[in-house]
Amino acid sequence: MFDALKERLDGVFGKLKGKGKLTEGDVQEALREVRRALLEADVNYKVVKGLVENIRRRAMERSVLDSITPGQQVVAVVYEELMDLMGSEPKPLTISPKPPTLMMMVGLQGGGKTTSTVKLAKRLSKGHKPLVVACDLRRPAAVDQLRVLAESAGVGFYGPEKGESDVLNVIDGALRYARDRLMDVILFDTAGRLTVDDEMMAELDAMKARIAPHEILLVVDAMTGQEAVSVSEAFHSRMDLTGVVLSKVDGDARGGAALAVLATTGVPIKFAGVGEGIDALEVFDAKRMAERIMG
Ligand code: GDP
Q1: Which of 3, 100, 225, 267 has its CA 20 to 30 A from that of 170?
Q2: What's the CA-to-centroid distance between 93 and ligand 1, angstroms?
Q3: Is the complex ipTM higher than 0.90?
């Protein structure tokens, strides 16, 4: 991720550092190139606009042009802005001191929710006894998919009884099932739809009220770029997300979704999906990423 962005910024910064005195025109030109590089990395234009304005303001405040090393000062300002945006340490998952820890996995259909649920459960099975719960009553295929993945990963599975029509019963059943087996982390794989629709959101609201989850994690496909941003905003405004799992990062060389989701929602990206395999999940370290972009 971010390789092209890094290369472009390296070019811009190389030119700046190479110059002695900078004119205002040099700085304008550099900022234009930073802007272009971010847009090419598929970062949402509103985010780019905000970022570039902040860089310009900081540069003015510090009168970088009058400094002895103006090029380096401009680079430092860009670095600081990126760090402000991405620089927080990885946010660990909340594990309730009083088990079970309850997690809702939400997101659009096809975004990688079911896969990520099992990936996360597998990761948590070092030290915990997780249970994944299929909550999509409209798509039996989704229930089967979770069951098969859970079996292959060796984590516990709970699904709806045949003919069950109320998802709240599934929740209650899962809580009992986990209690009887001393399972201490429960991940609810909620029903996804193709778009953010009211029916889905209403169901998620009802589930949230019943579960009182410690984590609500949105799984969003990094390859959808701009759409990842609007989907994150829609879910966050309704559900108060505690984190994002950015899936399919392996296919998103540009990395724009990560930057833009962070900038627009402020919700920490906790994990990144880096492949189809059940172990292909990494802790997302935005700070390290920003450091890498800036070399
Ligand atoms: P859901 O409808 O949101 O539950 O999505 P799925 O979990 O069924 O995932 C949809 C497709 O994306 C499947 O083919 C997954 O194998 C694939 N997928 C999920 N996460 C990743 C990832 O991190 N990288 C890649 N390359 N593929 C992924």
Answers
A1: 267
A2: 21
A3: yes
